[in-house]
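Appendix C reproduces, verbatim, an entry submitted by the partner laboratory led by Prof. M.T., so that reviewers can inspect both the input and the predicted structure.
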Amino acid sequence: MQKDCANCTNVRKVVIIGCGFVGAACAFSLMQSGLFSEMVLIDASKEKAEGEALDISHGAPFAKPIKIYAGTYDDIKNASLIIVTAGANQKPGETRLDLVKKNISIFKSIIPEIKNRNFKGVLLIVANPVDILTTVAVKLAGLPEHKVLGSGTVLDTARLKYELGNHLSVDPRSVHAFIIGEHGDSEIAAWSSANVSGIPLNNFCEMRGHFNHEEAMKKIASDVKNSAYEIISKKKATYYGIAMSVKRICEAIVRDEKSILPVSSMMNGQYGIKAISLSMPAIVGKDGVETQVPIQLNQQEIADLQKSAKTLQEVLTQNEI
């Protein structure tokens, strides 16, 4: 089995903490990806973890070889990646920030367990509110900042590309645009840097017969921001989209792709923002976040980003760990 001797980790071993809808969907997506040969599922309910492990394991004949089992915190020691999805679910009418108190309390029990096992790998936070919980994890985990990241606005950005692809009748993979800031109500569509295969967005829109740019941008940004609420109102939870987003982040880490993804990581003075994790484009590889990537933002987008950070900082201050 391949080893990363410098960090004493098994680069093909992943741990998922939390086996609710999101955790189970992540496990299923990662099992099919072929990225890992060993997957540990941990949950407050050992039976739930065992049931999910058994159910997913039955698909092993259709996938690459992988050992999936329910474990304990003692099983995390040599993992290269821990994914934390554990937390209260967002209910209809709730914002992600409404979950703060409940999920910080849960993190106070989970993250010290990770620290106590001398974990040396990358810690990926998926539970909401992801930016605040990533900040909490940085404070509690005892890991270098760059090794703690959140799933951030990777899903929101995918939703933006999907909406723009539909609007322009073009492959969303050819759309290059980011949602930045909070993974939540104060998120920002970074229109200034958006393009379609290098062509400025407005130029491409006009090429496709769309000229009412302001109205279209406002509607698309609103649809992206509210899409989770729409899904939750219809089926009570969102999990497939985030599971595919987690798989994409894991690919970048395990393969050391150095891909640019809008993950949540600590801000250290960029745009005048400090001491809070925000979702910004970053180079992601085997050690987590290599560096954030400055993208073109206009003055209003920078002001909105600072406002987003202030909103998160105020919530975190009210719920100090």
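Residues 154-318 form a domain with the L-2-Hydroxyisocaproate Dehydrogenase; Chain A, domain 2 fold (CATH 3.90.110.10). Additional entries are available on request from the coordinating office.
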